[in-house]
Amino acid sequence: MPDGMIGRDYGPGHDKSRPKQCFERRLAALKQERASWLQHWQQLAEYVLPRAGRWLNTSNNRGDKINSKIVDETATYALRTLVSGMMAGITSPARPWFRLAAPAPEMMEIAAVRFWLHEVERRMRVIFNRSNVYNSLSGVYEELGLFGTAAIVVEPDERDIIRCYPLTAGEYMCANSGRLVVDTIYRELRLTVGQLVDRWGEEQCSRSVLNHYRRGEVDVWIDVIHAVEPNRERDYAKSDRRNKAWRSVYFEAGGDPDKLLSESGYDDFPAMVPRWYVAGTDVYGRSPGMDVLGSVKALMVLQLRLAQGIDKTTNPPMVGPAELKNAVVNLLPGGVTYVSGQSRDVFRPAYQINLPLNDLDGLIARHQKRIERGFYADLFLMMSEQDDVRTATEIRVRQEEKLLVLGPMLERLQVELLNPLIDRTFRLMLEAGAIPEAPPELQGAELRVEYISLLAQSQQAIATGAIERMAGFVGNLAGANPEVLDKVDFDQTCDEYGEALGVPPKMIRSDEDVAKLRGERAQQQQALQQGQAAMTAAQGAQVLSQTDTRSDNALTRMLGINP
User: Fold this and answer.
1) Shared-domain flag, residues 500 and 540
2) 111-149: per-residue pLDDT in tens?
3) Which end of the chain has fewer beta carbons closer than 10 Å to its terminal beta carbon, N or C?
4) How many CB atoms are closer than 10 A to CB 81?
C-alpha cells in the first residue's frame, strides 16, 4: 500500500487523544451493525460477481475458482450494462458532466465570474482525467448496483492532486450522523510485517510485529484497522492535527493495548459512501441486485434443469436383464450389443423424457427479461432493442418516461457521491495552488454545482420542451397579433434555454455585453440615417441650384415665384 493511502501519517511520537480500546469498542459495534448484511452481500457476489466483496480476511487465495454457482451470465452482463450506462450517462470522461455556478443567478451575468468558473471546471476535468477518478467510479457503480452501498476515499496526491481508493463490500463499516449522513468509516485491511515497519517504523509497531520482523518474517500478514470519524473532542480554537474536524487513526487488530500506529485528521470527510436507496434510518442501502436475486437463483435452477433434461434425453438411463450385468454394452452411435432372444425387448431407456423445450425456453427468457429490467439494462440499451422505426420525438418521449425511474437514484447519487467528490477535489486543488484567483464578486462565496450529464439533461428535457412549446405558441399568435411578442422576454428565454442544455458560458453574452452591442448598433444605425438624410438634403440642394427659377415652370408656380 503506497504512503499516504487513506490518511496521512505524522511519524512516531504522536499524542493519543483517545485510548485504543475506544476505537476497538466502536469497531465491534459497527461490525455488529454490518453483520446482518454480510450474508446477503455474499449471496449476491456468489450469483452475480464472485470477485466482488471481502468475506474472509484470513484468506489470500484470491485466484481460486469461485464462480461455480453461475450457470447463466444474464445478471453479470446486465450489471455490466448498468455500470457502462451510468458511466456514460452520469460521469462520462468524454464530455462535461458538471459545471460550477455562482450562489446567485444574477452573478452569472458577470463575464469575469462566468469565465473564472469555466476555467476552474476545465482544470478540474483535467485532474479527473489524469488521475484514477473514472476507473474508481466504475467500481463504485458496480458496488452500488450489486450491493446497494459503495465507498471511495479521496486523498491528496503529489503528482495528480487527488487519488481515489475504492473499497468493496465486506471490508468497511459505516455509521450515520444525526442528519442520517454517513460521517464515519472503519476499514479492515491487511499489510505485511515489512509494510508496517516501513510505513510507521519499529517504535509504533506492536511487540508481535517486531518479533516477526527481527526474525526476518517480513511477509507475515497483519490485520490493520483504519478509522475515520468526527472529532467530537476537538478544540475549535486550534487547527493542529489533533483538532481537525475528522480524526484518522490506524491501529493493529489485537497487538499492544493503547498503542496506535498513527493519529492524524482531516478538515473534511474524505470518504464518499453513496447508497442506491435507503429504507428509513438504515446505514446500508438496498440495490437492484437485491431486487432480482430471487429471479437470478430461479434462473440458475431452470438452466440446470434444462441441461439435465437435454442430457437425459440424449443419453437416458437404461434398464436391461440381469444376465447383461457383466456383458459388454456398446451405447456409442453404430455400436452393437449382442443379447439373447429373451433379453432383446427389455434393453431400453428406464423412462421416457418428454422435455417441453418451448415452455422451458420461454420461462427462462422471462426470468432473463426480469433480471435485465431490474438492472435497467432495457433502459440503457433501449435504442438497440427497438425493432421498428420510430420518430425522433417518440424516441425522446419514451426515453424521458424511462428516465423517470432513475430520478430518485440520480438525486441521491448527486448528494452522496458527486457533490462531495467535487467539493473535496476543489479543496485539494486550493491547497495545491491549482485554482486561479477568484474575481472579487466570488470572494468568500459558496459555489453551486449543476449537473449537465446525459441523464441530468434528459431529466431537464421537460424544461426545454416547455420553452420550445411556449416559443412555438407565441410564434403562432404573433401571426395574428404581432403585439403578443411584447409579452416574452426573448433575452431571458435564451439564457434559460442555454442553462437547461448546459451550453458553455462563452456561447452566451452577458446582459452588459448585449446592451453595449445593441447601443453600438443603434449608434451605427443613427449615424447611417443621419448620413442618408444629409445626402438626401445635399442632393435636393443640388437639384434646386440647377433649376431655372426665372422662367415660368412647375417649380416656380409651386413656389409662387412670378418671373
Assistant:
1) no
2) 889 899 999 999 999 999 999 999 999 999 999 999 999
3) C
4) 19
* Dist. CA 270–CA 424, nearest whole Å: 7
pTM: 0.77
- The number of helices, as runs of H, and strands, as runs of E, in the chain is 18, 12
Distance of CA 204 to the CA centre of its chain: 39
The partner residues of 191 in beta bridges, in order of sequence, read: 222
DSSP string, 238-260: --SGGGSSEEEEEEESSSSTT--
Q: Is residue 265 part of a domain?
A: no
pLDDT in tens, 506-560: 677 767 777 777 777 878 888 787 777 777 766 666 655 655 555 555 545 555 5
Number of domains in the chain: 2
Of 539, 557, 537, give the one whose Cα is nearest residue 548.
Answer: 557
C-alpha cell at 518: 445593441
Q: Buried b vs exposed e over 248-282: b needs ≥16 C-beta within 10 Å?
A: bbbbbeebeeebbbbbbbbeebbbbbbbbebeeeb
Nearest Cα to 502, choosing from 83, 121, 110?
121
d(CA 159, CA 340): 86
Answer yes or no: is 534 within a domain.
yes
Local confidence band at 217 (pLDDT 50, 70, 90 cut-offs): very high
Of the three residues 470, 493, 508, the one that is the final residue of a domain is 508
Q: Check whether 207 has a pLDDT greater than 80.
A: yes
> Which of 491, 508, 525 marks a domain boundary?
508
Window from 177-186, 227-236, 264-273, 526-535 with minimum mean pLDDT: 526-535
537 inside domain: yes
Question: Which tops the pLDDT comparison, 29 or 3?
Answer: 29
Residues 519 and 502 in one domain: no
Domain presence at residue 266: no
Task: Give the DSSP letter of residue 411.
Answer: H
At 24, which helix (H) or strand (E)? helix 20-47
Q: Which amino acid is at 9?
A: D
Domain extent, residue 549, equals: 514-559
Residue 438: phi and psi, rounded to 5, are: -80, 150
Secondary structure (DSSP) of 138-196: HHHHHHHHHHSB-EEEEEEETTTEEEEEEE-TTSEEEEE-TTS-EEEEEEEEEEEHHHH
In sequence order, what are the residues at sequence separation of 6 or more whose Cβ sits closer than 8 angstroms to the Cβ of residue 200? 9, 12, 250, 261, 262
The DSSP call for residue 233 is T
Provide the residue type at 505 as one letter.
Answer: P
